[in-house]
Amino acid sequence: MASPYVSFIFIGLLDMLAVHFVLPYLDNHMKELGFNHIQIGLVGAAFYACQLISSPFMGSVSDIKGRKPVLLISLIVCSFAYFWLGITSSFFVFLSLRIVLGIFKQTQILARALAPDYLDDPNDVSILYGKLLSLGKLGTDLGTNLGGRITKAFPKSGFTIACALTTPLYFIILRLVNGLPEISKEKKLENPEPEKKSPKLNNSITDTYKQSINNIYSIDWNKYWDIFLFKLILSTSIGLYYMNFTSFLETNHELSSDYIGYIGTFQGIIATIILETVFYSNKLYRNDTDYSQRIFHVFLVLVLSFVGLALVSNVYLYVVLVVPKAIFFSLGRMVTLNVLWSRSEDTNRGVLIGLLYNVGLISSVITPLSSGFINHYLGVNYVFYTGAMLASVGLVLSYQSRTRSLEEKIK
């Protein structure tokens, strides 16, 4: 039997692989089915709206009913929904399935909430989160490539085959999750009626819903607000950079798509190396137990990198500045998750990770609107300056957080 650490690595990889067999080719398949643009837009909007609502709710349910059983239910639902997605031609069935997936496709959130139950060493949790982020990128790229090959080789039935292939992958993930040992840490919250026998189904669902909502409302926001704000600033800054990466290099440095691709690959390799070597960054910051120093360094480097990237006129200097930017972009992604986990309690870890995911979704709405407005009225250079301004807000707040942390240590 694989160790829990190895199981979580394969859970994260296979989940992203399965999803990206299907996701990149969803719109084309809907066009082939004869759906119009409004229907396609509605399907996409319904999925992300359900994700936004359900991610904290599913995380809260997992805190109450147990993260492992909730993850198993999520995987079973997803496996059947993806299979059915490949064989239906009805718009209403297709829309319904995307709504179901929007609600239950929370594998990454639930797995990250479950992992600390099996890993006692905070360093191991941090390393695992880094690997999950890195392997998520690998699963995305590999799934997209294989899904593309399948749809190209079988033009008429490729999407159906790709959807069908997700089912065995999800059953492998189910086997890995079900094989995780039972542990004392994984326990239900204290229930006012724990011994009540054979509750009615509707009463059980109602009670779970009420408990989940109460769990969300009982969060001490004074303890967590800064993490969510850091996440929003970081996600928006990163989104502004990548959304304008190609146009900036084409406009300011007149690079061809080939050279832009090389630079993109280069920064991707750096990011992967950082995510795969979390152990060494943890050793470097061994005294930074609350992550305040790392957060401060992330925003400091981001401010300097954004300004530098916007100002340099030499493409070679641009590539040099890409290195610290890529390093601290990756470090920032890990740190926000790690600091949330380190502050969370066993009773609210799932809902907090779900809310953190929601912040990323909110950023994905803000970023393109902001980018389009700035590009239209000011130009692409000012997008980078805007990223620097946002990072400056994070820098000031993280400096204050770091100062408070040092004062508490002195006391």
Note down, in words, how this protein is organized.
It is a single chain. The chain is mainly alpha-helical. It folds into 2 domains: about 5-180, Growth Hormone, Chain: A (Up-down Bundle); about 220-410, MFS general substrate transporter like domains (Growth Hormone, Chain: A, Up-down Bundle). Helices cover about 80% and strands about 0% of the residues. The protein is built from 16 helices and no strands. Helix 4 runs antiparallel to helix 5, helix 13 (about 290-310) packs antiparallel against helix 14 and helix 15 (about 350-375) packs antiparallel against helix 16. It starts with a helix and ends with a helix.
Q: Can you say what the CATH homologous superfamily of the largest domain is? A: MFS general substrate transporter like domains
Q: Classify the fold: give the CATH topology of the largest domain.
A: Growth Hormone, Chain: A
Q: Average pLDDT across residues?
A: 88
The shape is globular
| Relative strand content | under 5%
CATH architecture of the largest domain: Up-down Bundle
